[in-house]
Design a protein that fits this description.
Layout: H1 5-17, H2 20-27, H3 31-45, E1 50-53, E2 56-59, H4 61-84, E3 92-97, H5 99-112, E4 119-124, H6 127-136, E5 141-145, E6 153-168, H7 181-184, H8 196-208, H9 221-231, E7 235-238, H10 243-248, E8 251-253, E9 263-271, H11 278-294
Parallel strand pairs: 3-4, 3-5
Antiparallel strand pairs: 1-2, 5-9, 6-7, 6-8, 6-9
């Protein structure tokens, strides 16, 4: 059996979705067709490509080694089609981040690299998914929260972003010089959920309240930011997500002296390798410059 372009597309769909049925739906195939084709491809290559389980399919190490070549083959085909149409074939780089980091990272990088000779694609998902995309070659550079090291993936710390309380500059407490959690407990509060530490803080706020009312925890950061800017909420979230609003004076940091210390550790992740990738290197340099900016304290 020869390996076809449809086989390569199927391979990428199954590895991305982690599901034969979802890959079938995306490609307009039946699930039995997908199962049969993957089995035939495994027989032709002499390896097991996916570990089947009740919740779907996970790419094996052999599959992960094969995916970059499959992706490159399809990319080269696309470049050839563009060349035939007279369009320039620019190198492509794919970035991925947490949803709450997308505006902060992607927007800033796209502004800096807008005229660079490359085409940028952006994706968002949880840190664990972004790391999987990096391993399979679906993504070139990822921006994630600190997570366990993975062989073959380089990790660079971009910044420690403290968790802070913010409100709109027009909020009644915006001019306070010193506050405690008890002073804000009965306000409208909607923290951006950042993990188990957020659960503990919410319990602490509930105990301080003098009346029963909802206490919301939401994602992504853009939703928490809008509640603070437009609807009078106090939100508790990573400083990085609202850094531009703080610099512009649209939001202010509330001086909560007893807010438990917590932070985000934002990392840049990418596959190490000897092969030079000019577009990726440009992104890495721009991201490092951005990290230096983030590390400057706010006035």
């Amino acid at each position: 059996m020869s390996v076809t372009l449809d086989d390569l597309r199927l391979l990428l769909e199954v590895s991305t979705t982690g599901s034969f049925s979802q890959a079938a739906a995306r490609l307009g195939w039946s699930q039995p067709q997908v199962s049969q084709r993957i089995a035939a491809l495994e027989a032709a290559l002499g390896v097991t490509l996916f570990a089947r389980h009740r919740r779907g399919a996970k790419a094996t190490a052999a599959c992960e080694h094969y995916l970059p070549a499959a992706r490159q083959a399809l990319h080269l085909l696309d470049e050839g089609r563009l060349a035939l149409q007279g369009a320039p074939a620019l190198p492509r780089v794919t970035l991925a981040s947490l949803p709450s980091l997308s505006a902060v990272v992607m927007g800033s990088l796209l502004v800096v690299l807008a005229e660079a000779p490359m085409e940028i694609r952006c994706e968002t998902d949880h840190s664990s998914i972004v790391m999987e995309w990096l391993l399979t070659g679906a993504v070139d550079v990822g921006f994630v929260l600190k997570c366990p090291a993975i062989a073959g993936i380089q990790m660079e710390l971009m910044c420690h972003s403290p968790i802070i309380a913010v409100a709109a500059a027009t909020h009644p407490l915006a001019q306070a010089r010193s506050l405690q959690l008890a002073d804000i407990a009965d306000q409208r509060i909607a923290p951006q959920y950042w993990g188990e530490e957020c659960d503990g803080l919410m319990q602490q706020i509930r105990r301080l309240r003098t009346q029963v009312q909802p206490l919301h925890a939401i994602q992504p950061g853009s939703a928490a930011r809008e509640l603070a800017l437009e609807h009078g909420f106090i939100t508790i979230m990573p400083e990085l997500v609202v850094r531009r609003d703080l610099l512009a004076g649209r939001l202010v940091r509330l001086p909560l002296v007893d807010l438990p210390a917590a932070s985000w550790q934002v990392m840049m992740a990418y596959r190490s390798g000897k092969r030079w990738h000019d577009a990726k290197e440009r992104v890495l340099l721009a991201a490092r410059a951005l990290a230096e900016e983030w590390q400057q304290p706010l006035p």
